[in-house]
Amino acid sequence: MRTVVFVGPSLPPEEAAARLPGAEFLPPIERCDIDALMAQEQPPRRIGIIDGKFLQSFSISPKEILRAMDRGVRVYGSSSMGALRASELDVYGMTGVGTVYSMYASGALEDDDEVAITFDSESLRPVCEPMVNIRVAIDAALRRRVVSKDNAELFLETAKALYFPQRTAAAALHQLKGIMPEPDRQRLAGYLRSPEAPDAKREDALALLDRMRQDAKQYQTVPVPEVAAR
């Protein structure tokens, strides 16, 4: 069962390959990528969408995904462009996975810039931070009492106001110098730099690959019905 996954800055492709052996990993998806796959002699039976392009090229359209699904392809989405499209198409059978998908599906998030980032075209490494990652990390900081509710709201407002290609936690914290009490600012900065701070996009990408791997096992264990011959 041929499996193709579009992944980039949310998770290094080599790490993705180790998580879902046997799958084909392609760069972030853009318009016409799925149509091209479906035109091949042996199109994939499963497609995972994690990352996608939208600024330097046309983004993958819902209709293109629906055309593949109409041909029996199971499509999964998480983390970034995949989460956006899954929140739009889950009612038609697209499988959404993870925190970011749930936030869009529930209406907690609406703006596309929440997942938008810029990245190096060769290494696929991000050069800024997605707003959704910052939100999830701040939620965790609140639960751990690293930051007060007032300071959390101030920080999120400051980060959201940044243009997404320049958006990083460090840039937001820098703007809050002299505004947020310095001990609070330093404590929050330390937490956001630590391994304890969650990376929502990365975690969701791993969850998508795990879901696809588990679904493949279930598919392989479904008994083939016997056909009576005449």
UniProtKB/TrEMBL annotation:
Pfam families: TfuA (PF07812). It comes from the Bacteria. InterPro entries: TfuA_core. Residues 51-168 form the TfuA-like core domain. This is TfuA-like protein. It comes from Streptomyces atrovirens.
